[in-house]
Amino acid sequence: MTRQFTLAAALVAALATAGCTNPYSQGQRAAGGGLIGAGAGALLGGAVGGGSGAAIGAITGGAVGAATGVITTPQRPRGRGYYR
Question: Which PROSITE patterns does UniProt cross-reference here (predicted)?
Answer without folding.
Answer: PROKAR_LIPOPROTEIN
